[in-house]
């Protein structure tokens, strides 16, 4: 299978192993937390879990841009190892929690680590591969493992709890993060590339989000990712309600619905490496959006449990098409030095979309019939598809002709095509900082929003 070809790369194999172990640890800890909250105070279990999930979103939205802002100045390898070790330490301490607020603090801390670890993993991945096709296959493999973890974690947690108590399960989760840290310790990370960004806390923290939103194809990508959030939130929030309250089934049918969407996503993950050879990423995402819209509308033709399974399966396929190629678009849209800031911006903005989508999905199940709710989401997804296509033009080009006005400024820099000037001898080794002049020039190259390209050429 083509999807497994990247595992021939030793560094990626270790990197992939570390991420997979950490992902499984995260899945187990989420389930264990829910059961632990019920055990601690079954009357307030739902309140504790909902607050913990809200804390997770706050951590993801607020912390990721800060990590991305300074990732180019910090050793990524040791930072990722630190996040793994910190999560392990928190999980070791979690069984000693005796109050609800203890759980809130610990879960918020765990998710701060997750908000730092995940964008760094995503930003480092393209640096391991020189070939874009191999990177595309690695993205598909990561997607498949993510879906497999979603399917496996609940079953594995249930099996483990037959012979382990909560304390042992949390210790096992902690051991998973330590194993991930050990695997990362063996990986040879690509060297950090110096960024030419100016100093200043707010400038660095806001750089990723501002640059992301100034890039038309990334605004289109965000629109497509929002469709994935709307449909994904529908599944996560409403599967149990639809299966048990609408169709009168038991919990096993709820689990089967989650399996259906996971299976659809995994099948499409296998197909994506081939699709990427014959279709543009824009067309792949457009196909994913169309699949999502058609599947939601089709439920009105087959308003039954069978129809629901079919819709969920197709939404899984659509989700893989909408989300998996995102890394390639971000790689195409950013310089190597600024890539962590862009990936962190993607992480933050998409989770803001998921937060909104969760609220919408909850209201749909509360106030609308199942078929009407799906039609509303199909309409919203169609609007986002049109917005995405408007931002991300069909003739989108990476290499653009543009003009630089004459500028004199001061910032860290290397002597690349934008920095050809004389020195007096005191400036020191590169990258160095001194005031320098840029003459007016018109040229063409792969265009990214950065310190020298502050707006998109029209």
UniProtKB/TrEMBL annotation:
One of its GO terms (cellular component) is plasma membrane. It is a multi-pass membrane protein. Residues 410-433 have a biased composition (Basic and acidic residues). It is found in: Cell membrane. InterPro entries: MFS (IPR011701), MFS_trans_sf (IPR036259). The keyword Amino-acid biosynthesis does not apply. Residues 410-436 are annotated as: Disordered. It comes from the Bacteria. One of its GO terms (molecular function) is transmembrane transporter activity. Its main location: membrane. Keywords: Cell membrane, Membrane, Transmembrane, Transmembrane helix, Transport. This is MFS transporter. It comes from OCS116 cluster bacterium.
